[in-house]
Amino acid sequence: MIDTQAHILDPARFPYPSPCPGYRPAPDEIGTIEMLLQQMDRTGISRAVLVQPSTYGTDNSAILTAMAGAPERFRAVVVARNDPDEITRLARQPGVCGVRLNLTHSRELPAEISALRDMARRIASTGLLVQVQGTPETLPSLLDGLDDVPVLIDHFGRLDVSNPASVAAICRLADAPGNLLKVSGGFRLAPSGDWRNNLSPFEQVMAAFGPERLVWGSDWPFINHDGPTPTYTECLDWGRALLPDERTADATAATLFGWDNDDGG
């Protein structure tokens, strides 16, 4: 499968800002492009999407440099300021296929929600994918009124698998046909830690979206979470156990992230 969620955290080559605009990784939370390629080659994953972590803010140098080293294998989802010129410039850069909006730092709905909606529309108008990390509390308000904008929702919408209301809130997001779901981050979402065996809540949400609106992501290198750190193989096996049709998920990812064109753009 195409891995649609991997991060680059390489403080030796790309030092973390001080202070970090988002999460500051611990010294052992490192994920270089060489380390990622080892994981991919070992598990037979040929292509991956490099997603900008909150650590680097809007400085996308780490993922863009990594992507440039193997443009046939990688695409990039960047973070941008709400600036039309910057978004247009990023859209013209080969291999950049999306912009990520991250709403999970405060877990509260931001005051500038209307500005974020406008930014999402601006991103989509350039041909880039809108990717959103939010929660069952923030996502409905953001996505309301964006029915005409394709949006990829990270990590099952950060639902709480032990809370039926949380699961139902993410299921309702499937009512908008442009919303897609990333089958990722299971190890973050099960308070009991039983994310590999308690598949029912995930399956309920996936059934609401349908197989053609699902993609898989590892979320490597698995930083900033409670509980034991999973392995890449465990995350891959979990995704394969959940996805009703691996080939359909692969085709959806190829379309979303531009591999259908096969030109690095």
From TrEMBL:
<dbReference type="InterPro" id="IPR052358">
    <property type="entry name" value="Aro_Compnd_Degr_Hydrolases"/>
</dbReference>
<dbReference type="Pfam" id="PF04909">
    <property type="entry name" value="Amidohydro_2"/>
</dbReference>
<keyword id="KW-0378">Hydrolase</keyword>
<dbReference type="GO" id="GO:0016787">
    <property type="term" value="F:hydrolase activity"/>
</dbReference>
<feature type="domain" description="Amidohydrolase-related">
    <location>
        <begin position="2"/>
        <end position="230"/>
    </location>
</feature>
<protein>
    <submittedName>
        <fullName>Putative TIM-barrel fold metal-dependent hydrolase</fullName>
    </submittedName>
</protein>
<dbReference type="InterPro" id="IPR032466">
    <property type="entry name" value="Metal_Hydrolase"/>
</dbReference>
<dbReference type="InterPro" id="IPR006680">
    <property type="entry name" value="Amidohydro-rel"/>
</dbReference>
